[in-house]
Design a protein that fits this description.
single chain
Length: 244
């Protein structure tokens, strides 16, 4: 197809890769995102892959919009294609099946202000001095724990000193308060999706069968939770293309 003429030899090699995992390493400004967008077009136009069997994931809404626009310039019909951030994709998955984790599907997302309010309530409830344990520090601890898929119980089990034990207790109460409000914070979106997939093989199987081709931009920025999510989704077909 004529659009392949826009690519250099290495880019063309990555774009026209057939089946199986593909890792693209390149420097800034070398056309990594171009490889992803052209690969999506190649899959749909040349390999006759249904757009709904492709998911492309990046880190910001702006990057997702730009990727979607670039693909639309190459191909007129990409209906069903999912180009999304990690968090938006996970929110979509959870809206469909979060009831299996004991939440209502109309859950709300707490922003940083909401999180601060909840943490202050937790500090007060446990009679903990917010000068020694600032809400910001506690939320940082909780965020880092979720990035590595660490539950409150695991945080308690692995606490090395009284400060970490206290942080873990706050994490535990914080999660309880969120669930009482039928709310998630930003980090819960990915962690709960991984949990959903682990506890419900039929849900994981649905997404493994639907998304036969997975593409990830800025792969070097993925944390453990994001890595685990992609790994689980791609296990069946192993058509994972990552650039970074």
């Amino acid at each position: 197809m004529s659009f392949l003429n826009d690519l250099n030899t290495e880019q063309k090699q990555a774009v026209t890769h057939k089946e199986g995992p593909l890792l693209v390493l390149a420097g800034a400004g070398s056309g990594k995102t171009r490889v992803l967008t052209y690969r999506i077009a190649y899959l749909i136009n040349n390999m006759r892959v249904n757009p709904s069997n492709i998911v492309a994931i990046t880190f910001t809404n702006k990057a997702a919009r730009e990727m979607r626009d670039r693909v639309n310039l190459l191909l007129p019909n990409t209906k069903g294609l999912l180009v999304s951030t990690f968090h938006s994709a996970c929110m979509r998955f959870l809206r469909k099946d979060i009831d299996k984790l004991g939440y209502n599907r109309n859950f709300i997302i707490f922003d940083n202000h909401d999180q601060q309010v909840v943490i202050k309530e937790c500090l007060k409830s446990l009679n903990i001095d917010d000068k020694r344990y600032s809400p910001r520090a506690v939320l940082g601890f909780i965020g880092r724990a979720k990035d590595v898929l660490q539950t409150p119980q695991k945080s308690l089990d692995q606490a090395k000193d009284i400060r970490e034990t206290t942080m873990a207790q706050l994490y535990e109460l914080y999660q309880k308060r969120l669930k009482e409000c039928n709310a998630l914070d930003f980090d819960d979106l990915i962690m709960n999706t991984v949990l959903l997939f682990k506890q419900n093989p039929e849900v994981l199987s649905y997404y493994q069968n639907r998304f036969k081709y997975i593409l990830v931009d800025e792969y070097q920025d993925t944390n453990l939770a994001q890595y685990e999510l992609i790994k689980m989704m791609g296990e069946k077909h192993r058509n994972l293309c990552v650039v970074g």
